[in-house]
Amino acid sequence: MPIVMDAEALNGFLHGVFEQVADDFIVESVTEEALTVRLRVSDKHLRPGGTISGPSMFGLADVAVYLAVLSKIGPQALAVTTNAGLDFLRKPAAGVDLIATCRLLKLGKVLAVGDVLIHSEGQPEPVARANMTYSIPPRKG
């Protein structure tokens, strides 16, 4: 399926619809095969011990799949997560952003399934892996 929304359009969508988190995430690239999004890590994303919190990594994975779906279907603010799984593989590097790469494994009329690998910036080994299913609202008209 061709790209309907590129990185610029997706970043603009986040700022228009999800202003409360838009400054945390930036879509870096969108291709036919994958979407890459960055979590700008700040103190609010850290847990005791100085590592990035699980909820922050979950949020990054969730946003990555959401945006990957929108990159293919256009601005559908009401697409929602219906299932999620997250494996924490290793401790993220301190003081660097997290980068998520999402591949859509299935994009149907009502469901989309995505796979996400999360890396600490500059590190080759993933820190987490997620799989998520999204429900796509019916198209009007």
Description:
With 141 residues, this protein is α+β, with helices and mostly antiparallel strands. The chain has one domain (7-135): Thiol Ester Dehydrase, Chain A. It has helices at residues 7-17, 19-22, 54-73; strands at 25-30, 35-39, 80-88, 98-107, 111-120, 126-135. It has a six-stranded antiparallel sheet. The longest helix is centred in the middle third of the chain and has 20 residues, at 54-73. The radius of gyration is 14 Å and the shape is globular. Keywords: Hydrolase. InterPro entries: HotDog_dom_sf, PAAI_dom, Thioestr_dom. GO terms for molecular function: acyl-CoA hydrolase activity. Residues 49-125 form the Thioesterase domain.
Tell me about the largest β-sheet: 6 strands, antiparallel
Which range best describes the helical content: under 10%, 10-25%, 25-40%, 40-55%, 55-70% or over 70%?
Answer: 10-25%
Helix run count: 3
**Which outline best applies?**
globular
Number of strands: 6
Briefly note the structural class of the backbone.
alpha+beta
Termini separation comes to 21 Å
CATH superfamily: Hotdog Thioesterase
The chain-level mean pLDDT equals 95
Order of helices and strands: HHEEHEEEE
Radius of gyration, in Å, reads 14 Å
GO molecular function: acyl-CoA hydrolase activity
Keywords: Hydrolase
Protein name: Thioesterase superfamily protein
InterPro entries: HotDog_dom_sf, PAAI_dom, Thioestr_dom
